[in-house]
Amino acid sequence: MSQNVLVVHGGGPTAVINASLYGVIEEAKRNPEVGKVYGAIGGTGAIFSENFLDLTSFGEEKLKLLLHTPASAIGSSRYPLYEDDYERMVDIFRKYDIKYVLLNGGNGTMDACGHIYDACKDYDIRVVGIPKTIDNDIAMTDHSPGYGSAARFIAAAAQEVGEDVKSLPIHVCIMEAMGRNAGWITAASALARRKQGDAPHLIYLPERNFNEDEFLEDVSRLQKEQGGVLVLVSEGLHDANGESIVPPIFKTDRAVYYGDVSSHLANLVVKKLGIKARSEKPGLCGRASAALQSPVDREEARLAGAQALRSAAKGASGVMIGFERIPGSAYQMQTKLVPIKEVMLYERKMPDSFINHRGNDVTQEFVDWCRPLIGEELPEFLNFKDYV
C-alpha cells in the first residue's frame, strides 16, 4: 500500500489551523516513503463524498501562504457521525491507499478521531489527532494551537477599547468573548494591562456562577471612581442553577440559541443603574484575525502538524499531539503523544488558581501562564490623562 496521507479539519477554524496543514505537507516532503497528502475539502463529510485534493501538487511559494491564511484552507464542518460511518471510512481510505489519517480539530473532532482509530486499527491505517481550538478546552495538553492567537486578539481589542473608554469616560462598555463553557479567551483580555487601573476593569468567566447583584455593585463603584469602565464577559455566563443569564431565543432538537450576553448586561446596567452602556462582540473576528496572529501560536501549530505525520510514520496511532512546558525561567515547549482515549470529549476549564476569589478577575498566576503564548508584548500607548 502506498503511504498516502489524509488531513481532515473539523469544527470552528482558527487563525493558525492552516499552519498545522503546512506542517503536515512539509513533513511529507521530507519523508520519501510518504506519497500524496490529500485534503478533505469540506471537513468530515468530504470523506464520504471522496472530495479529496492532492495538496502536494502545489508549489512551495503557494503553500507558504498557508502560514498566514486564517480559517480553513481545505474547509471544515460539524458533520454528525454515527457508528456505521466509521466502518464505511475504512473502505474509502483503502481505496485511496491512505495509510495516515490526521484529524485537526477540537473536542468533537478528537472524539471522532478515537472512533476512527478503533475502526482502522486492524488495517494498519494510523490515526493521529492534531489539537486545534481557540477555546483552549482540550484535555491533556498545556494549551492548544489556535488559542494563542485568539488570546492575542482579545487582549489587543481590550487594550484599544480601554483607551477609547478612558478618553471619553461617559459609559460602561461590555465586551463579550467566545468560549461557552471555558473562559480561557475572556481571561486573556487581562494581558491588555500594563499598570494598575488599566482596562479591562472586570472579567467574568463561566467557571463561576454569575451574581447579578455583585456585578452591578462592581460596575457602579468603578463608574463612580473613574467614569468609563470596560468589562469582559464570556458568552457562556450562567447563574447558580447552571442556566444561561440570557433567556433562550430559539430551540431545535440539537441546540439552544441564546441572545448576546454583552447586550443583555449592557441593558441591565442602563435599566438598573441608569448609566450609559454599550456592548461589543468581536465574535468571529477573534478567530479569523491573521493580522493579530501570534507567531508563537503559528510555529507551534506548524510543529503539531509536522509531529503528527512524523509520529504516524514511526508507527504511532490512536494518539493526539500534546504540548508540555519545559521547566525554567524562559518559555520552552515540547510535544508529547497523548492516548486519544484520555482526550475524547473531556472539557478542560480554567483552574481555580487562575481566578480571583470574588470571581470578577483573573490572578497573576494566569497572566504569567498565558503571556508567552501571545508572542511579543502589545504596543505601548500614550495617554496624558495618566500623568494628571
Topology at a glance:
Layout: E1 4-9, H1 17-30, E2 37-40, H2 45-49, E3 52-54, H3 60-63, H4 83-95, E4 98-105, H5 107-120, E5 126-131, H6 147-167, E6 172-177, H7 184-188, E7 202-204, H8 212-226, E8 229-234, E9 248-251, E10 256-258, H9 261-273, E11 277-280, H10 284-287, H11 295-313, E12 319-325, E13 333-339, H12 364-370
Parallel strand pairs: 1-2, 1-4, 4-5, 5-12, 6-8, 6-11, 7-8
Antiparallel strand pairs: 2-3, 9-10, 12-13
Helix pairs in contact: 1-11, 4-5
Descriptive key words:
alpha/beta; Rossmann fold; 2 domains; 7-stranded mixed β-sheet; 4-stranded parallel β-sheet
Tell me what you see in this structure.
The protein has two domains: 195 residues, 3-Layer(aba) Sandwich (Rossmann fold), CATH 3.40.50.450; 178 residues, Phosphofructokinase domain (Rossmann fold, 3-Layer(aba) Sandwich), CATH 3.40.50.460. Helix content is 35%, strand content 17%. The protein has twelve helices and 13 strands. Helix 5 links the parallel strand 4 and strand 5. It is elongated and about 70 Å long.
